[in-house]
Write a structure and sequence with these properties.
With 159 residues, the protein is an all-alpha fold. The chain has one domain (2-154): Periplasmic binding protein-like II (D-Maltodextrin-Binding Protein, domain 2), CATH 3.40.190.10. The protein contains six helices and no strands. It has helices at 2-10, 22-31, 41-49, 97-111, 116-124, 133-154. The two termini are 13 Å apart. Belongs to the UPF0065 (bug) family.
Length: 159
């Protein structure tokens, strides 16, 4: 979908090659079977640092702390093409509010422990941001709406 967003926002004609995961996609990149790929920081950072891949841009709204010299897509000339990957901790529907608050507090304590944030950033390229359960629901709803628009505009479909 990041490729479809690039195609739509940049107005370029690219052909998407779909792989069953990052490993086959990365192998295709290293063999020269594809011109470029979209890769998450968690799986691409090591290859970038090892010189196997060259990061052209990050798809975040701001530059990544782990790759401060790599421009954002907007800085590279493709505005409105943010595809920031996020992780959310979720529980079952109807989870009691008290349990949600206890779980959230425990998670925040663990992630704020000395060295954890630096390790996430430096090893995985992840930047920790905490949101409330309500904000997380809003983000997920917004992402569903946003990507539905890209699917509609691009004509993308599941094959």
């Amino acid at each position: 979908m990041a490729g479809e967003l690039l195609r739509v926002r940049a107005g370029i004609d690219i052909f998407a090659v779909h792989y069953a995961g990052n490993a086959p996609s990365n192998t295709a990149m290293m063999r020269g079977d594809v011109a470029f790929t979209f890769e998450t920081m968690t799986t691409g950072l090591a290859a970038i640092r090892a010189g196997q891949f060259r990061a052209l841009a990050v798809t975040r709204a701001a530059r990544a702390a782990a790759l401060p010299d790599v421009p954002t897509m907007a800085e590279a000339g493709v505005p409105d093409s943010v595809t920031d990957v996020f992780f959310a901790v979720i529980g079952p529907a109807g989870m009691p509010r008290a349990a949600v608050e206890r779980s959230s507090a425990a998670l925040q304590r663990g992630l704020r422990a000395p060295g954890v944030e630096e390790r996430f950033r430096d090893t995985l390229g992840l930047e920790i941001a905490f949101t409330s359960p309500e904000e997380t629901r809003r983000i997920i709803a917004s992402e569903i709406d946003r990507w539905a628009e890209i699917v509609r505009i691009s004509g993308a479909r599941a094959d």
